[in-house]
Amino acid sequence: MRKEVEAWFAGRDRNITVKHEKSDRGRPGEVLLLYSGTSKDAHFKFRVDAQFTLAGSSANAPSYLKAINVNVDKRDFTK
Fold it and tell me: Mean pLDDT, to the nearest integer, of 31-52?
């Protein structure tokens, strides 16, 4: 999930750099990621919350993305 988010930003705009800061575990099937980013003149933070459908109970069972949300708070932007 981390690689996909970083690749998406890199493919959209080469002037934006994102860095993974923290991962939290939610309930089974949830991934919570916190990123910091910079552009030419701004610094910002955003949170990615994803939900997966689990296809088994083991740690290596396949999973499928069900929903993804990207949340940005305007208070986390600085110039």
Answer: 93
Q: Which of the four pLDDT bands, split at 50, 70 and 90, describes residue 47?
A: very high
- Specify the CATH number for the domain of residue 55: 3.10.450.230
> 3-state DSSP call for residue 5?
helix
Residues 6+ apart with CB under 8 A from 50: 1, 30, 31, 33, 65, 67, 68, 69
The structure tokens listed for 68 are: 């993804």
Q: Give me the pLDDT at residue 34, please.
A: 95
Tell me, what amino acid is at 35? Answer: Y
Structure tokens, 35: 């990123």
- Total structural domains within the chain: 1
Helix, strand or coil for residue 1?
A: coil
Q: What count of other Cβ atoms lies within 10 Å of the Cβ of residue 48?
A: 19
